[in-house]
Design goal:
Helix content is about 20%, strand content about 25%. The protein contains 7 helices and 16 strands. It has a 9-stranded mixed sheet with strand order 2-1-16-15-13-3-11-12-14. A hairpin with a 4-residue loop joins strand 1 and strand 2. It starts with about 30 loop residues before the first strand and ends with a strand.
Length: about 325
């Protein structure tokens, strides 16, 4: 099989195209229809939707995992970015500090003592002397992506209105285009709505660092979905419903379940050119960063023409990345 050079996932993303704020009204955000290059608002898309459709969302909640504090004895700044909870007091974290931390070291701060258990590249396994979730609840901040200027006024905007449970450190940003009212309108118009949970981790922001896309080792993420929901979705598809996955995390969850009939666990499914989709007919997704694993999904679905599509979007002043606009792809099975 021919491999895909990672340079195929590069494009010129203008800084002015990166959205810094979310649309005040999600329905006013724009949707580019890839097959026709038509641009319309999400409200108009929902209002004009004639084909009976199934919409599937990722309900995993973004946690306030950025914890900033100071060291007890030096008052030096330190930030713990909680990636995952391993137990009540143990977590995988990123640490910003001036110190060169090694296993066995203890960082004493004003809110907790933190012992370094293990270090794997930039990721630390640490023990806190208090419950990690309590620290998140009391001191945590929303983890805005690095390309969005940090501002407390944006924190709630980075969370989906329908979020429920889960432990994500990044948002399922395709869902940001849908308010609860818009989802209610879908149901009133006889469309079906389902939810899955995939806990998004920071791997979603990482650039592919191998020469060929297929050689990249993608991150693993926890997912779960209701078994009866999955079979109902397949039944509705057989009945002629269009299956719309809202976001790449939903797409990867459905494809993982279809491949292994396991309804909860870890997935490291990496969708690359040549992949044959089993469930979804349509993907709604934001415009993604260069060299990302998410862009590999776009190339898999739309082929090399995605670059022309992205150029068209920028020339028409559509906004990119988390707070930006979105594109709708029809998936050829």
């Amino acid at each position: 099989m021919n491999k895909t050079p990672t340079t195929d996932l590069e494009y010129d993303l203008k800084e002015s195209s990166i959205a810094q704020v979310r649309y005040k009204n999600p329905g006013s955000s724009k949707l580019l229809i890839a097959s026709t290059k038509q641009i319309l608002t999400f409200e108009k898309y929902i209002k004009n939707l004639s084909n009976k459709s199934v919409f599937i969302f990722n309900k995993s909640s973004v946690q306030n995992v950025r914890i900033e504090t100071n060291k007890l004895y030096t008052n030096g700044k330190v930030e713990f970015f909680i990636l995952s909870l391993l137990s009540t007091n143990t977590a995988e974290v990123l640490i910003k500090t001036s110190s060169n931390l090694l296993p066995g070291d203890v960082v004493s701060t004003y809110i907790a003592d933190v012992r370094i258990v293990e270090k794997n590249n930039s990721i630390f396994t640490v023990d806190f002397n208090t419950e990690v979730q309590l620290l998140i609840d009391e001191y945590g901040k929303v983890p805005l992506p690095p390309y969005i200027k940090d501002d407390v006024s944006k924190y709630e905007d980075y969370k989906n209105q329908f979020s429920d449970g889960g432990f994500s450190v990044a948002s399922s940003t395709a869902g940001l285009h849908f308010s609860l009212r818009m989802i209610s309108d879908l149901i009133k118009n006889n469309h079906k709505v389902f939810y899955v949970n995939l806990d998004i981790n920071l791997g979603t922001f990482k650039q592919i660092d191998t020469s060929n896309v297929e050689d990249y080792k993608i991150h693993s993420e926890y997912y779960n979905m209701d078994e009866s929901d999955f079979h109902e979705i397949l039944s509705l598809k057989e009945d002629g419903y269009n299956i719309v996955t809202v976001g790449t995390t939903v797409l990867r969850t459905l494809e993982t379940v279809a491949a292994n009939s396991t309804y909860r666990g870890l997935t490291n499914l990496f969708i690359t050119p040549g992949y044959k989709f089993k469930v979804s007919n349509t993907l709604i997704t934001n415009f993604h960063a260069p060299r990302s694993s998410l862009l590999a999904i776009v190339q898999t679905i739309f082929g090399d023409n995605w670059k022309d599509l992205y150029s068209y979007a920028q020339s028409n002043h559509l906004k990119f990345l988390s707070f930006g606009d979105a594109v709708l792809f029809n998936i050829d099975e």
